[in-house]
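Recap from last week: sequence in, structure out.
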Amino acid sequence: MPTQEPVHEPTAELDARYSSALQARPGAGDVTATGWSEGRRRLETAEIFWLSTVRPDGRLHVTPVIAAWHDGVLYFSTGPGEQKARNLAHDAHCALTTGTNALTEGLDLVVEGTAEAVTDPEALERVIGAYEAKYGPHITSPEGTFHGIGDAFRKGQATVYAVRPDTAYGFGRDNGVFTHTRWSF
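Predicted structure tokens:
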């Protein structure tokens, strides 16, 4: 199971075709690729992600999940009988997306990779710690929406998946100046 931050930063490349670099508007000429440190910070703090998987018949399945970034890996979970688990059993390729729904500000992120089930008890404890640190009372308080998720992970009632990015994309918007960054790992 992947558990460490990459030794090197991923390569960041600005795709000018989909960025403001080619358009004559104030600030557009100075557009640069978004740094991985900013992309990673946003992954660490985002609360909701959209998981995209492929059904065995080829149709897409998209659903919201909570996820935690830890040691260079994005973790999410699902019940073993849920549609996303069945999809991943058939094809482990997936994408996790997060961001904002504003037109003129924000940074949307897409992480593409292959989901790998986490079964090692020590690794599960690290993931539980990452979830608790990130979501706090939502997981640790008896009144929390996801209280008991750690025990569900330990008992196998929920399957935890690790996605180490193969490629990630950042779509930035800053007062009408747009960027499209591709990070290659």
